[in-house]
From TrEMBL, chains A, B:
The lineage of its organism: Bacteria, Bacillati, Bacillota, Bacilli, Bacillales. Keywords: DNA-binding, Transcription, Transcription regulation. PANTHER family: HTH-TYPE TRANSCRIPTIONAL REGULATOR GALS (PTHR30146:SF109), LACI-RELATED TRANSCRIPTIONAL REPRESSOR (PTHR30146). It comes from the Bacteria. This is LacI family transcriptional regulator. Pfam families: LacI (PF00356), Peripla_BP_3 (PF13377).
Amino acid sequence: MNATIKDVARAAKVSIATVSRILNNQPGYSLKTKQRVLKAIKTLNYQPNAVARGLINKKTRTLGILVPNVSSMFSSLLLKGVEDAAYTRGYSVIMCHTANSGVRTMDYLHVLKEKRVDGLLFTSEVLKDAYYDEIRRMGVPLVLLATQSLNDSIPYVKVDDRMAAYHAVRYLIAKGHTKIGMISGNKEDRIAGQPRIDGFIQALKDHNLSFNQKQIVYGPSFSFDDGKRLLLDLLSKNRGLTAIFAASDFLAVGALSAAYSSGLRVPDDLSIIGYDNLEIAKMSLPPLTTVGQPLFQIGSVGGMMLIDIIEDKGNVEGRILPHQIIERQTVSERSKALTEKNYDKQ
Amino acid sequence: MNATIKDVARAAKVSIATVSRILNNQPGYSLKTKQRVLKAIKTLNYQPNAVARGLINKKTRTLGILVPNVSSMFSSLLLKGVEDAAYTRGYSVIMCHTANSGVRTMDYLHVLKEKRVDGLLFTSEVLKDAYYDEIRRMGVPLVLLATQSLNDSIPYVKVDDRMAAYHAVRYLIAKGHTKIGMISGNKEDRIAGQPRIDGFIQALKDHNLSFNQKQIVYGPSFSFDDGKRLLLDLLSKNRGLTAIFAASDFLAVGALSAAYSSGLRVPDDLSIIGYDNLEIAKMSLPPLTTVGQPLFQIGSVGGMMLIDIIEDKGNVEGRILPHQIIERQTVSERSKALTEKNYDKQ
DNA sequence: TTGTAGGCGTTATCAG
DNA sequence: CTGATAACGCCTACAA
């Protein structure tokens, strides 16, 4: 059905070697033959077979990316970033939805190996030893996105979670808040858990605010429903809280929702700052102030980095990308007077 | 680096033909040799090279999917569905973010052809002739997701947009609303535009409600920002509206936001029903009532269908999947009395 | 039950 | 400047 290099050679009355040279613009042919060949290519609508090329070159110009959830607002931005980098560099990307499942992840690793992808991206989840061993055996480069490996020196690109959390809380403090609670998601999470908690506590300490463990409340995940539940939990354990740092936008929006249901007005009665700056942050009511991580960029920078490694242009160092406070409408300025007034109420 | 079939053959002291037979479990070997070969495979950690296989079989077990925006809540669910079908059938999927760009789409079509994918999924956008011609030349099956081609009989999987809109409006009417407006997105959109408008109008007519063109308001897209703007526009053109049908959840949530800003309470003063049932519908304030389309399913059914065609098991007919009204909290019951009371106010 | 050999579409190394 | 030809890793007649 599809024309092959042989067809082109025959049509142009040259050898396949010559066609190949022209295709890969290597030296060794006259202008005339080149034009003849080019014409043959056009009329036959010839396009080289990447599979055959891959076989001999041992390069497929294909990347594999493993994400826990293809459709989450978080991962999908990462995906888009990777895709963009791949596109501009002439690579394709195979997406693998791991569903947080070990067997599914291993399955994909095997497929990706069989398909001889040139490199791997691994996102969000922690890189288990079993995965890493398998990847080592594949012998392809790997870069981590929005996550980091503790024991090994695998290149990664992410934000400084501890610092970002610190800045979020510092922002609250700068706005005059002194009674601040935190809705942490799953504290076992190596990236979104402890580091953000540490940042929260450090910010409190650095500004001479007292800290008690009950100011932090934990959940199984970082979801909207957890946010709803956890806000109530947090409020019941602490009196007089005026601001809250939520470890994800979903948690924050869930908190927003719970606040609304219990008659608390945001930001008048309670300020909330989120984490991530997903699309939903713009669309919540009121629009959510949050500390944003550049997810698309993390993806594209990571993709570029991986391709650089593949093509040996590579600095293979981890990279921390800057985060940023996105001011919207869920954090209020809190004057001293206001604070006292509020105390009276309670 | 990686072991080949030849290495296995040598290690097991058989010919590569025998190894191949065992790999593809075809008849023609004794149990003993099989076990010997299997052991060799294990110890060498051999995995077949899918590139070589693809070259000879002319099958890559790879699908290509073209989506306008990888990271939109809408497309990403479709993606996940396709991915899931592919995974269960042993296929991989290459994702292509077209960014609504013609050249980018054509670029992708070319690489997908070069990489010899076994089939194509095309989503959301209209299938331009240039795309279709190129795909025909590729000679691979195609299925359309959440869109449909008018002139040709290409298999598709989608919802009945006209019917879904009709039901949304009928639902509003059943709740006692008689003054209903519509926020349409881009009316040029072949799928999300006119069909939903038609459904809206038809529902009104079938229930003997008057209809005037100004009850519908249009925007450039289906976005949150458009929703904000368009609600105000709609309200200014029509007095006494008690309910609104928005052609997308984003439009609806934008409308929610605008309503809030202008002091209108949803659903007490104004009811709103959306379209899509994206994740955001659960998380809006109040949670959005909407007519849901099963995006994940559309993706997975479409993926299965495509693979069926590839593997010649194929019924190649288009399929309409059922939509469903998802009742949440943005539509109020409207008694006759209430209606009159509201009229007095205005 | 097993092995030999040709070929899938390219690239690359030789000669000429 | 050009053309044979041997790989790449695998599958599959065809023989044995």
